Amino acid sequence: MSVKSPSISVRKASAPSVKVDALVVGVAPGDQEVTLDSGAREVDKALGGRLASTLTALGAKGKAEEVTLLPSPGGVDATLVAAVGLGGDEPNAEALRRAAGAVVRRLAGKADTVAFAVGDGAAESVAALAEGVLLGSYTFDRYRTNADKRPAPISAVTVLTGKARDKAVKAALARAEAVAAAVNLTRDWVNTAPSDLYPEVFADEAKAVGKRAGLTVEVLDRKALEAKGYGGTLGVGQGSEREPRVVRLSYKPARAKKHLVFVGKGITFDTGGISLKPNEGMLTMKSDMAGAAAVLAAVTAVAELQLPVAVTAWAPMAENMPSGSAQRPSDVLRIYGGKTVEVLNTDAEGRLVLADAIARASEDKPDVIVDVATLTGACMVALGGRTFGIMGNDEDFNSFVRQTAGRAGEDGWPLPIPEGTRESLDSKVADLANVARGRLGGALVAASFLNEFVGEGIRWAHLDIAGPSYNDGSAWGYTPVGGTGASVRTLVGLAEAAAAGEL
Ligand code: BES
Ligand code: MN
Ligand code: ZN
């Protein structure tokens, strides 16, 4: 699917003496010239103190993601020196991730082996660079017959640090690899054409991935969904030739401190159904399973990290198609557990499949439920393409999710579910309708709908990732075009926080 990720190792060595194709150093904005990060200062010595002025003459400003390439000066064993902008002195983890991502994208086709002499060499910095490298070098070539003509991605990266033998550095590196693998798996699933990734295939792949990670796997097919009353998922899926599935992956270590449930929307393609979308509205809708992909990948990472918390991922999967067998506006569905929903707009399908899974997951009385969904265009209107919305039934938990996201290098922002929102979903015939009249506050209305299916006393947060899950523009930092893997790092961070007793 995606091209093999570069291997990453750590080494203690002086930057000028490393024999690689490209040596990466960091620069930051300064008064007259760029200022040099510590690794860059070593190279500067070998150059007789002319690195900053040379880079400045080449136009370097030290801005985030700027990359300036220099042919190797005498005294440096690498073939190329790549100076990457850090945006400021003392870069934080996210600045290092973005710099690493930007530089590996730029070095594709130019270097096979790369060494980083960037940052302070502490475990956190090494891990941030590794994450940026592994996430930034992602490419998706499954459908390219001319992939060999594209710039070859780098194959081996060495991060230079004085602490190469530290246990903390080794552990941080292993964590970065597990997390990046989960993000890249999510991207692969999102990028795959919907003709190749429909519920049955997606469920089979989730099962294989879950088994490999040692998880308990359950896959409900149409018959099982009918027997158990998953009416939301069945209603959405009934218009498609491809039958729906619900997948459960569960990780349950012996002395689990908490139980977290992650629920992800898995619409493998969203045409809108009978409430058909215009063509432009469908162009990115293969990504409508990004939430499901994220929760499934995240639980495999949690298992690999052997965190002492139980995590269950639920992924309801369906294809939303218009056909003679499709559900119609006015149909009434019976969601898992018995609540009835009048479907007034078949394009508001995500909340229907999520309702089943949230209701079912609530029966297990977990400590928290976090659902992740490409749920509303309204959330993108509100927050743009890089920030997910956080809604829920507990303001403190919303803030906690936001903080956790920030620490992981993701951006989420709390939105309210104002009083009166639930009433806007009152139905003339059923317990509730799936949409309100009018378009105001669409993201909040959707959250209010989901809230109806969360079990009593369970803390719940809903992440609307419609914006950040898919990059329709060009690559930036470590974010490629197409599927981004949004929310995976936040979910793993939440499990880590729970393991640390912070939840
Ligand atoms: N999958 C879409 C939401 C979406 C839109 C995600 C654009 C990413 C980009 C969802 O199923 C949907 O169609 N939502 C409707 C809800 C409306 C009918 C109440 C929307 O946002 O228009
Ligand atoms: Mn829709
Ligand atoms: Zn959808």
Automatic annotation (TrEMBL):
<dbReference type="InterPro" id="IPR008283">
    <property type="entry name" value="Peptidase_M17_N"/>
</dbReference>
<feature type="active site">
    <location>
        <position position="351"/>
    </location>
</feature>
<keyword id="KW-0645">Protease</keyword>
<dbReference type="Pfam" id="PF02789">
    <property type="entry name" value="Peptidase_M17_N"/>
</dbReference>
<comment type="similarity">
    <text>Belongs to the peptidase M17 family.</text>
</comment>
<dbReference type="InterPro" id="IPR000819">
    <property type="entry name" value="Peptidase_M17_C"/>
</dbReference>
<dbReference type="GO" id="GO:0030145">
    <property type="term" value="F:manganese ion binding"/>
</dbReference>
<feature type="binding site">
    <location>
        <position position="270"/>
    </location>
    <ligand>
        <name>Mn(2+) 1</name>
    </ligand>
</feature>
<dbReference type="InterPro" id="IPR023042">
    <property type="entry name" value="Peptidase_M17_leu_NH2_pept"/>
</dbReference>
<dbReference type="Pfam" id="PF00883">
    <property type="entry name" value="Peptidase_M17"/>
</dbReference>
<dbReference type="InterPro" id="IPR043472">
    <property type="entry name" value="Macro_dom-like"/>
</dbReference>
<dbReference type="GO" id="GO:0070006">
    <property type="term" value="F:metalloaminopeptidase activity"/>
</dbReference>
<dbReference type="InterPro" id="IPR011356">
    <property type="entry name" value="Leucine_aapep/pepB"/>
</dbReference>
<keyword id="KW-0031">Aminopeptidase</keyword>
<feature type="domain" description="Cytosol aminopeptidase">
    <location>
        <begin position="345"/>
        <end position="352"/>
    </location>
</feature>
<feature type="active site">
    <location>
        <position position="277"/>
    </location>
</feature>
<feature type="binding site">
    <location>
        <position position="349"/>
    </location>
    <ligand>
        <name>Mn(2+) 2</name>
    </ligand>
</feature>
<keyword id="KW-0963">Cytoplasm</keyword>
<comment type="function">
    <text>Presumably involved in the processing and regular turnover of intracellular proteins. Catalyzes the removal of unsubstituted N-terminal amino acids from various peptides.</text>
</comment>
<dbReference type="GO" id="GO:0006508">
    <property type="term" value="P:proteolysis"/>
</dbReference>
<feature type="binding site">
    <location>
        <position position="347"/>
    </location>
    <ligand>
        <name>Mn(2+) 1</name>
    </ligand>
</feature>
<protein>
    <recommendedName>
        <fullName>Probable cytosol aminopeptidase</fullName>
        <ecNumber>3.4.11.1</ecNumber>
        <ecNumber>3.4.11.10</ecNumber>
    </recommendedName>
</protein>
<feature type="binding site">
    <location>
        <position position="270"/>
    </location>
    <ligand>
        <name>Mn(2+) 2</name>
    </ligand>
</feature>
<feature type="binding site">
    <location>
        <position position="265"/>
    </location>
    <ligand>
        <name>Mn(2+) 2</name>
    </ligand>
</feature>
<dbReference type="GO" id="GO:0005737">
    <property type="term" value="C:cytoplasm"/>
</dbReference>
<feature type="binding site">
    <location>
        <position position="288"/>
    </location>
    <ligand>
        <name>Mn(2+) 2</name>
    </ligand>
</feature>
<keyword id="KW-0378">Hydrolase</keyword>
<keyword id="KW-0479">Metal-binding</keyword>
<feature type="binding site">
    <location>
        <position position="349"/>
    </location>
    <ligand>
        <name>Mn(2+) 1</name>
    </ligand>
</feature>
<keyword id="KW-0464">Manganese</keyword>
